[in-house]
Amino acid sequence: MRFKNYNFDFIGKSKILIIISLVMIIAGIAGYFIQGGFNLGIDFLGGSLMEVEFTRDVDVAEVRSVMNDIGFGNAILQRTESNRFIIRTKAKELGVPISTEEKKEILDSLDEKIGTTGPPLQDRNVDPGFGKQITKNAFKAIGISFVGILIYVWIRFELRFGAAAILALVHDVLVTLGVYAILNREINTSTIAAILTIIGYSINDTIVVFDRIRENTPMTGKLGYTKVVNDSINVTLSRSINTSLTTLIPIILLLILGTAALKDFALALTVGIVTGTYSSMFIASPIVVAWNNRFPKYKK
Amino acid sequence: MRNKKVHITIIAIFIAIISVSLYYILKEPINLGLDLKGGTQIILKPTERGGEEVTTQSLDKAMLIIMDRIDKLGISEPLVTKDLSKNIVIQLPGVKDPDKAKEIIGKTAQLEFRLVTGTFISIKNQKWDTLKFDYEKGELVIDPDAEKVLLVDDINALVSGNLYEIDGELLSDPESEEMLLVKYSGEDNQETDVEGSSTGDGSESNVDINIDPEKVIGKIIYKPETRELLLVDYKDESELGEILVDSRNDAATLVGPVLLTGDKLAKVAAGYGTNGEIRVALSFKDEGVEIFKEITSENIGRNLAIVLDEEIKSAPYIKVPITDGDAEITGISSIEEAKNVELVLQTGALPVNLQIEESSFVGPTLGMDSLNKGLYAGIIGFILIIVFMLFYYKGLGIYSALGLIIYIIIFWGVMSGIGAALTLPGIAGIILTIGIAVDANVIIFERIKEEILKAKSPRIAIGYGFKNALRTIVDSNVTTLITAAALFRFGTGPIKGFAVTLSLGVVISMIISLLFTRSIIFLMSGISRINTPGFLGVRRRSGE
């Protein structure tokens, strides 16, 4: 992994790279519409969730048929282990948690027809009103993070760097959400936490590149701004890739070895870290160059 | 030489920190969050009661009462806190049945004594039936085929065939669709003096009704914010009575104003009555005894409703004035329920109504599973990172390995020392920070390599490397802290745990790489044998 001797033309190829990003984002939006929106968890929609452990291995069809028999055909089933299922149920009205009686009926039927090891491993009930509050808080947290980062980068660098960094972050969030839409993976509060972490983490690579651009800016007179930016990306390339790799190693292990809940977290982080590294090189820096081309400040 | 002293001092300080951390690791086991050790969490949203707004004081009082109730239930190590949105968050470690806890903790326990003033009945095919109150829709359930709906003053008299009075007839105003109570002067048959009322289909007849405004007594209104169904005066909207559900027969019953409340109680005891019926015996404080005597002596021959949380539990007939201040609640289905009533009445009524927003139970199996698998992923990740660093940065990789080990010890020590709870997302946070901890090393090492390639001596290159990397490391960590702060502010329990582990990890790893790693590299660079470009992972080519 020796990138130092290479000299990629990041800025020259920026049009193609931006098109690749747009294609990814559009694919995500298409996935969103094809799947009929995000697969939002009970944290946001409200409702009930139970994780049940069976005495033997079962497949989705078997659990589904039991649920159909007792009138819960619309339940969402997620297999977490060969003998464990998360069952999300909807009561008559969307989002309203099911009653204790209905819960008992489901558990009794599953025990009778398949055999369960005991009470559910987890049992969550969320009021739809609370889901709205969580959604509001998630948006607030993301908004405040964006503003905070913009202000910080603005103070440390310049507004144009801040704006470019934020655009790169928006790109990362859109791509990550797109992957969730395409895979139809459930979005819950952990996903939001992971996305916020991506926002905080993927800005790192961008800052490292910006830092180098700032350091090399005095060379603009000799080399031209495009070359300064391009060289800065190349020089920080091995650093960007290595830091992402060292962060990705344990996260990918978590994605492989973790429990269902940990995997949820790890997936968002994996996608976010990869796109974050990509966007700091291929999105944020070209924006800085384009901005300078349009409103020249650093001239040859 | 002065530099050397500074570096040795820094390392000595770190050795002290590590010792303290090890002490805490051994002394205090890490505090596991509810989602890892298993238990029940209930989030309750306070809503105003009786027109009184939710204030900080009423919320605090509610929390104290809840704590009291949890203590009485014998649950150990409970945690009752407020969240950002002023919800009450209750964590009950080890509690496996959220439903039972929910019933007792969230119960308002407002005990009221009110006179029964009437009951609504519907008449169909010469038979009568009581009406029900639909709490979800906030209205009385009226059979569309009912020939008429009447308000009678004494349902018991009606049942036993004694004298009763019809206080009015309930009619739907075709224009405003309001439910109106109209003076009833007709006999108890199909012919009434209400114009246009027909004996045929009841739902059709409603359309043609002409209501004489002179005869309207009142109307029924629903207040969704307090879930109250009230009978109010037609003209000035003053309250004439409240409609409550009688728990014994589900009948919608009209009651008068509150005459006495549970805060005047002295003693509460669940048990069995003389006839073996389940009951909760009540006795009043002196002040309550007086009021109770007054009520019972002024209302002989009437029924006094005992209302618990907007539900009539029983409505005994007042035969003689009660002077000793003893009363009882009957109409309870099980002794467990009676004991619950006893408990909630003893701890007092909550000053606010509480609505359950979230209730969750996580068994210890799932949490332990996540903890073990997370630990497993962490250990393998840790080894792989060190292998990677050694492979890529050669000798410098040893410093990362050392730094990472120290990072884990200090991190663990701080978590144990401050008693921060490790949550399930927190595990992901730790795993993530193991990766982030190496980031700073990579930035520094890359800089050192760069300086060496510029043909600087290793010792000078190390100095430049740290100096140039410092700004980048601080910048990139501050942004991560910004988002962690946002998460801490707006996240719920487990997510807060994640924000804490992430922030701690970022700060600790930054301090280690900027101080400890720096000092150890400087000190080691004095030893010439290991202080070669090759050791630092750079092969200088001729001509470079």
Q: What would you say this structure looks like, in words?
A:
- The complex is a heterodimer of chains A (300) and B (544).
- Chain A has ten helices and six strands.
- With 300 residues, chain A is α+β, with helices and mostly antiparallel strands.
- Chain A folds into two domains: 14-40 and 130-294, Multidrug efflux transporter AcrB transmembrane fold (Up-down Bundle), CATH 1.20.1640; 47-126, Alpha-Beta Plaits.
- In chain A, the strands form two sheets. A four-stranded antiparallel beta sheet of chain A has the order 3-4-2-5. Chain A has a two-stranded parallel sheet with strand order 1-6.
- In chain A, a hairpin with a 2-residue loop joins strand 3 and strand 4.
- In chain A, helix 6 (159-183) packs antiparallel against helix 10 (260-294).
- Chain A is elongated, with a radius of gyration of 24 Å.
- Chain A starts with 13 loop residues before the first helix and ends in a 6-residue tail after the last helix.
- Chain B is of the alpha+beta class.
- Chain B folds into three domains: 2-34 and 363-525, Multidrug efflux transporter AcrB transmembrane fold (Up-down Bundle), CATH 1.20.1640.10; 39-106 and 354-362, Alpha-Beta Plaits (2-Layer Sandwich); 111-331, no CATH class.
- Chain B is built from 13 helices and 22 strands.
- In chain B, helix 1 crosses helix 10, helix 11 (424-453) packs antiparallel against helix 12 (458-490) and helix 11 packs parallel to helix 13.
- Chain B is elongated and about 110 Å long.
- Strand 5 of chain A pairs antiparallel with strand 21 of chain B.
